Amino acid sequence: MRVMRPTRNTPFAHLSKDALLYADSPELGVSILRRTVRRTGTGRTDPVWAVDVPAGGTVRMAPGGLRVVILDPPVLRAGQNVTYLLWFRRSGKVAVRARVNEGVR
Q1: What is the pTM of this model?
Q2: Are 68 and 98 in contact (CB under 8 A)?
Q3: What does each C-alpha distance from 100 to 46, 47, 75, 103 come to in angstroms?
Q4: Are 19 and 88 in contact (CB under 8 A)?
Q5: What's the rounded Cα separation, in Å, for the pair 25 and 53?
Q6: Which three-class secondary structure state does DSSP give residue 34?
Q7: Which H/E stretch holds residue 29?
Q8: What DSSP line would sit under 51-99, residue for residue?
Q9: Strand order of the sheet with strand 66-70?
Q10: Separation between Cα atoms, residue 13 and residue 26, nearest integer Å
């Protein structure tokens, strides 16, 4: 999933940096932000409390890096669209749509 900078009808929102604090989905249940950390050749995931978003920039999420982990995912089909609510420190709540690339469960 690619997260674009928040688009909101507040003056100058695109000119200042922001921070992604949380991502959730009413369709998918409880989820958390996590990042893969590599130490001494092994990898593990750590929780992420905030992700800086540069002014006018993007944040990419992908396996092996920053991602949203769904704790108890429902059955998902490839090609299905789901809604995510992204919660930003300055911009507030922003709804985005994401497409499921691979089926789950």
Answers
A1: 0.70
A2: no
A3: 23, 22, 11, 7
A4: yes
A5: 20
A6: strand
A7: none
A8: EEE-TT-EEE--TTSEEEEESS---B-TT-EEEEEEEETTTEEEEEEEE
A9: 42-47, 31-39, 66-70
A10: 26
Beta bridge partners of 86: 23, 94
Provide the CB-side half-sphere exposure for 43 (13 A, CA).
9
Q: Can you name the residues that pair with 92 across neighbouring β-strands?
A: 88
Q: What is the pLDDT of residues 33-64, one digit of tens each?
A: 888 877 666 777 788 889 998 888 888 887 77
Q: Is 13 helix (H, G, I), strand (E, B) or coil?
A: helix
Burial of 18 (0-12, 13-18, 19+ CB in 10 A): buried
Phi, psi of 71 (to 5 degrees): -70, -40
**Angle at alpha carbon of residue 90, lines to 53 and 95, rounded to 5°:** 75
Q: Return the DSSP state at 16.
A: S
Taking the C-alpha atoms of residue 78 and residue 99, their distance in angstroms, rounded to an integer, is 8
Among candidate residues 3, 98, 1, the one with its CA nearest the CA of residue 57: 3
